[in-house]
Amino acid sequence: MSEPRVNGLRGVELAVYDLNSSVDFYSKNWGLSEVSRSGGRVYLRATGEEHHIVTLHERPKAGLVAVNMAAADRAAVDALHGKAKGLGVEIIAAPASLPAEGGGGYGFDMRTPEGHLLRISSDVARHADTIADPTRPVRANHVVFNSPDIHNQMQFFLDTLGFQFSDFSGHMHFIRCSRNHHSVAIAKAAGAGLNHIAFEMKDYDGLMRGVGRMRMADEEVGWGVGRHAGPGRNIFSYFVDPNGYAIEYTTDVDQAGDDYVSRREDYWSNLPLRPCAWAGAKMAPTPRMRDAMAGKLIEERNQTCDDVISEKMAG
Ligand SMILES: [Fe+2]
Question: How far away, in angstroms, is 183 Cα from ligand 1 center?
Fold first, then answer.
């Protein structure tokens, strides 16, 4: 058998302070819809076949709970588990059946060297009823991690999960597990954490309509609408969710086959009009957006919550 590998990003699991208001935000404003809920967890789908792309967990502190990735079948899940174990990766749960409310399937949980939980699964139920609404996200497109150790973190995904290297911008590694230019990217940062989650829109018009829906709901665009003058060359529009997570609508992301020519910072840093192909440095993230991407908003709010909790305990 060839080297085991994951073949797609399913989505993310996020801890949120207020489950109902977060579900409202992700359904009414962002464009997902509730599939099921169980014991403080809500599963939200996009318009595509994937059973759910976001799971919200109500917890006292916000933070990334897990990133969910797909493998082709049970044999691939078992092979990835065996490989991870052999490499000394921390396994949190051995391959087993997954909860029915999340679409079932078969999978296991492991941790990256920086402590992020990854769930690798196969045979999760898929929706036959895809939704024909281009203003709403189709699927999860990519997850970007912050890391003080980007080279080793990238190597972990290549060695353990069979990812392929796409590009290095000098600031970020972009890696793929399908034709999508990057399902994971790893950005240089002071600490490990979540930088942002990107949701794929069908096309540019759909993305602009999604942005319009967000603006009509008084959500501020944190960066965009622009086109990255860097790896992936995708159209982007970033927002901050009510918990402080950075979230992106994206479309027209490069697709990369086996003949894809990877490039490094000497190429990307010499492109004109960085970081936005349409407006250069005039299209820059707001300070709040930068803070969200650095994980600061969640950190600050979690600290505030700690104060409230300790005051209550002391009182
Ligand atoms: Fe992105």
Answer: 9
**Helical segments of the chain, H only:** 19-24, 74-86, 150-161, 204-216, 265-268, 287-293, 296-314
Compute the distance from residue 121 Cα to the ligand 1 centre, in Å: 23
Could you tell me the sign of the dihedral formed by the alpha carbons of 96, 100, 104, 108, in that order? negative
Instruction: Please check whether residue 146 is in contact with residue 295, taking contact to mean a CB–CB distance below 8 angstroms.
Output: yes
CATH number at residue 12: 3.10.180.10
Check whether 183 has a pLDDT greater than 70.
yes
Residue 263 forms part of a structural domain: no
pLDDT at 305 over 90: no
> Considering the entire predicted model, what is its pTM?
0.96
Closest-CA residue to 130 (of 53, 61, 188): 53
* Average pLDDT, integer, range 48-61: 97
Question: Residue 244: inside a domain, yes or no?
Answer: no
Distance 129 CA to ligand 1 centre (A): 27
Which residue in this structure is represented by tokens 């709040």? 288
Instruction: Give 93 Cα–ligand 1 centroid separation in angstroms.
Output: 29
Question: Residue 68 pairs with which residues in a beta bridge?
Answer: 11, 119
Question: For residues 169 and 267, what is the distance between their CA atoms, to the nearest angstrom?
Answer: 8
Q: What is the distance in A from the centroid of ligand 1 to the CA of 66?
A: 18
* Closest to 232 measured CA to CA, from 207, 210, 205, 200: 200
Q: Is 139 inside a domain boundary?
A: no
Structural domain count, the chain: 1
Instruction: Report the pLDDT value the prediction gives residue 273, as an integer from 0 to 100.
Output: 87
Q: How far is ligand 1, taken at its centre, from the CA of residue 113, in Å?
A: 22
Task: Please give the residue range of the domain that contains residue 43.
Answer: 8-122
Q: Is 115 helix (H, G, I), strand (E, B) or coil?
A: coil
Mean pLDDT of all residues in 60-72: 97
Q: How far is the CA of 310 from the centre of ligand 1 (A)?
A: 37
Q: Is residue 160 part of a domain?
A: no
